[in-house]
Amino acid sequence: MKTLARLMPEKFQHATTTADGAHRAHVPLKKLETLWINTGTLCNLTCRNCYIESSPKNDRLVYITKAEVLTYLDEIERRTLGTTGIGFTGGEPFMNPDFIDMLTETLTRGFQCIVLSNAMKPMMKCATQLETIGRQFTKLLTMRISLDHHTKEGHEAERGARSWQSALDGLSWLNDKGFRLNVAGRTFIEESEDTARAGYEALFSRLGLKINAYNPAELVLFPEMNATLDVPEITTACWGILNVDPNSIMCATSRMVVKRKSAIQPVVLACTLLPYDSAFELGPTLQDAEKDIFLNHPHCAQFCVLGGASCSQG
User: How far apart are CA 305 and CA 300, in angstroms?
Assistant: First the structure.
């Protein structure tokens, strides 16, 4: 197996310039199309490579409240920002005691909502309320379920023993109740994208799920992220060299709200992938967050620019 080089310590040290003195690429906020709400980092699982380190013990990001979420929805409406999508992520959102109420209120206001969940016990504890929400807001709500591989062995290598069947049961329940579904997979197992999609397609067919594995918006395959491995720094020249439009990068159209442990109020971050890096904390309001984002982190290159990935709804 090929040994990957370690990240050189001089990289990603200066906000606006790279290690060799070039102008670091930055991304202006074109429009806030999607606002992500982190409901808290507590989760019923401890996954091997969770980028946000969610677990039953990690409360570095505490449960955000419905009232706090509503302040951001109010700002969107008051300032006519034109935001259409609200994403809820965690941790496991259904563990937040305010989650059903904040989801209902967000949908009632007409936002398209996407909920990232593992579809396991915390979600099923809310099955009766969730079914009611699903019937009322069929066209506004998408459930994106984490299924890290199309095999039990691959999925449980990441998520732990006995996590596979519970996830499949939750997926099947959502499908039977008529929810709009996405699946989020990972590329941590060495196989081509075509092989992965074919494997998921066979699984979906076997389970009778209404998900097209060949549609990147319905099956999202996220590249792995490892901030210790070497990756090129993205310069302003890279946009042309790579033929990448800065407006296609996630931070051109989205932000994430988190509430840190012991904090008085939530704050807005540049990115869903960098919840703990203070350099990407922009301020308590959406107006504070209307800043250019310099791509000063390995994840910016690995996941967004070179990986071509996005957490958005597509």
Answer: 6
Residues of the chain with pLDDT under 70: 1-4, 308-314
| Rounded Cα–Cα distance for residues 149 and 74 (Å) | 39
Question: Which residues in the chain belong to E strands, given as ranges?
Answer: 26-27, 34-38, 85-89, 112-117, 141-146, 180-186, 219-222, 254-258, 267-269, 281-283, 293-294
List the 180-186 sheet strands across, edge first. 219-222, 180-186, 141-146, 112-117, 85-89, 34-38, 254-258, 267-269, 281-283
> Where do we find the tokens 């840190």?
260
Q: Given the structure tokens 């109420």, which residue do they identify?
A: 101
What pLDDT shows up at residue 308?
64
The number of beta carbons lying within 10 Å of the beta carbon of residue 242 is: 14
Contact 271, 294 (CB under 8 A): no
196-227 core/surface letters (b: 16 or more CB in 10 A; e: else): bbebbbebbeeeebebebeeeebbbbbeebee
| Cβ-Cβ contacts under 8 Å for 3 (sequence gap 6 or more) | none
Bond from prior residue into 91 cis (ω within 30 degrees of 0): yes
Convert the pLDDT of each residue in 104-117 to its tens digit: 999 999 999 999 99
Helix (H, G, I), strand (E, B) or coil at 115: strand
Structure tokens at 135: 């019937």
R_g over Cα of the chain:
19
* pTM of full prediction above 0.90: yes
